[in-house]
Amino acid sequence: MRTSLDLSRAEWGKSSYSNGNGGQCVEFAPGIAATAGVVPVRDSKHPAGPALVFSAEAWGSFTGAMRSGQFSAPGM
């Protein structure tokens, strides 16, 4: 199923795992989750580019796994 999601007014936040030198930056729009039940994710270096959209449940599982150390982040 494919539906249209207007992200033009989305407020994007940067991942705490993104480094501060302009590389490896991931942004997400948590406010969309409250209204649409999905979490859009994009590359901050290309904000006009495409966004990946995950279910709020999948995003929660991913961020929980990151917090618990199940993935190793480069430079950490």
What are the salient characteristics of this protein?
single chain; 76 residues; alpha+beta; 4-stranded antiparallel beta sheet; DUF397 domain-containing protein; DUF397
Concise structural overview:
The protein is of the alpha+beta class. Helix content is 25%, strand content 20%. It holds the Pfam family DUF397.
Order of helices and strands: EEHEEH
Runs with pLDDT <50, length 5+?
Answer: none
Q: Which descriptor suits the 3D outline?
A: globular
Arithmetic mean of pLDDT: 82
**Measured on Cα atoms, how large is the radius of gyration?**
13 Å
Major sheet strand order: 1-2-3-4
Count of individual helical segments? 2
Q: Termini separation (Å)?
A: 38 Å
Structural category: alpha+beta
Strand content: 15-25%
Helix content: 25-40%
Total strands: the figure is 4
Quaternary organisation: single chain
Largest sheet: 4 strands, antiparallel
InterPro entries: DUF397 (IPR007278)
Domain DUF397: 10-67
Protein name: DUF397 domain-containing protein
Protein architecture, described:
This protein has a domain at 24-67. A 4-stranded antiparallel beta sheet has the order 1-2-3-4. The model has no long low-confidence stretch (mean pLDDT 82). The protein is of the alpha+beta class and 76 residues long. The protein has helices at residues 30-36, 56-67; strands at residues 13-14, 26-28, 38-43, 52-55.
